[in-house]
Write a structure and sequence with these properties.
Layout lengths: L4 H16 L21 E4 L2 E4 L4 E4 L6 E3 L2 E3 L7 H11 L8 H5 L23 E8 L3 E6 L5 E6 L9 E3 L4
Antiparallel strand pairs: 1-2, 2-3, 3-9, 4-5, 6-7, 7-8
């Protein structure tokens, strides 16, 4: 049975009232670090994160943010795929857009919203991140950092966040 419309309106007003008090607002990101057993998957070195499994170096902050005292400050830029490619090319020092497979290595199954190690990648938004992997003439692959549910393809005109990668030996 569907509740009466006035009851739904009262419930919505009550939820809105509680949310306005700040009692039900979730943070934009949550803390998630690897369990205390086994090797740590990431090593922070001079403002970059080196992945133990691949030896790749990752920018700690998403494009649009700047590292300041161990935190990523600023607004994450969401770009279409072409602009993400241009931003990577203009970053210099060997930085590039990661492949889908490379980007998936940052997803940790025991983390969500975002699905990565927030000690290594602070203030990472739980959102889509572009990969360099194309999907036909009009699509490209992204990796979902909200729940770590994997990746998918979408139109290149869609927008997503960007995290750049390079060889750990490039400077």
């Amino acid at each position: 049975m569907i509740p009466a419309l006035p009851a739904i309106r009262r419930l919505a007003a009550a939820v809105a009232g509680i949310a306005s008090l700040g009692l039900c607002v979730a943070p934009a990101w949550s803390a998630c670090s690897p369990p205390d057993h086994g090797p740590h998957p990431f090593h922070v070195d001079d403002g970059v994160v080196v992945a133990a499994s691949s030896g790749l170096a990752w920018q700690r902050c998403s494009l649009g943010q700047q590292l300041d005292d161990g935190r990523c400050q600023g607004t994450v830029r969401k770009l279409d795929w072409a602009d993400a490619q241009k931003a990577a090319a203009s970053a210099g020092h060997g930085w590039r857009l990661p492949t889908q497979t490379e980007l998936e290595t940052l997803v940790l199954g025991y983390c969500s919203a975002p699905a990565t190690d927030t000690a290594a990648f602070p203030e990472t938004p739980g959102t889509w991140f572009w990969s360099s992997t194309a999907d036909g003439p009009a699509g490209a692959w992204f990796v979902d950092f909200e729940q770590g549910g994997g990746s998918g393809a979408t139109l290149r005109s869609s927008t997503a966040a960007v995290r750049l990668v390079r060889s750990a030996t490039d400077h």
